[in-house]
Amino acid sequence: MTQVDDDTAFSELTAPYRRELLVHCYRMLGSLQDAEDVLQDVLLAAWQGLDAFEGRSSLRTWLYRIATNRCLNARRAAARRPPRAWDVPGVDLVEPSGLGEVVWLEPFPDALLGASPEARYERTESISLAFVTALQVLPHRQVAVLLLRDVLGFPAREVAEMLDTTVDSVTSALKRARAGLRGSPSSGTATAADDALVARFVSAYESADVVALVALLTDDVFISMPPMPYEYVGRELAARFCAGILGGGRRFELVATRANGQPAFVTYLRASDGSRRATGLLVLTLDGGRVSALTRFDAAVLSGFAT
User: Considering only Cβ atoms within 10 Å of each terminal Cβ, which end of the chain, N or C, has fewer?
Assistant: First the structure.
């Protein structure tokens, strides 16, 4: 068999799993760019080690073993994006509630989510920004166990083999990981009124109606903006923040997309001559008929979204 034939056969063998492996790497790393880099490393390692694959587990399990351990190595050695100073032109910094530590967080385009049976996990909270953010601050091994057991449904015995540990260690790590996630922000539950809520949000944002915008937020609304570390909690600070962004005669156009299973918008700043410039991505978290979180990403993340 020629090298070309080998490459084609390997590509066909692994193609059904690439999309879900990318999602898995993203959950572990919180960065789409890092996940894509690690996935390439995973596929290279699988290609180089295919002759040693003895078939004692399924190909999918074997690939997840490689991917999980490569992600663990990446988390330990990652040169994460550093926090960035406030750099919104013409807008003064509003004193934040606090500074976030997961400044490397990036959004995951819904267009990259798969339609395989495994994708049912990707349509729930397991891909939400709140969940992915919470994973980043858990110990590395706990994250791996939680994802493999609770999200992907691998048996404890297989997880122990993947991580070269014991079933008892897996059980203990899973218990600690679940405890560590308690109290983490929820992504909310979708309701039939969500479309109307999002439409009102767009109208208020595009018309720079801060009063109408703030009325759509929960009392404890949470605003963040990776890679800037500034975080704002509560309507009062949200009102001041939104007034700064939407003030000064600035007008934005929001173009709908989706990220992390959530409503999202590419934001364009409109100029007086009718031109527009993409400024970033805004992701909404909805809960109980209100917007409970706003996450703003800069324009660097837009390559994965229609603009």
Answer: N
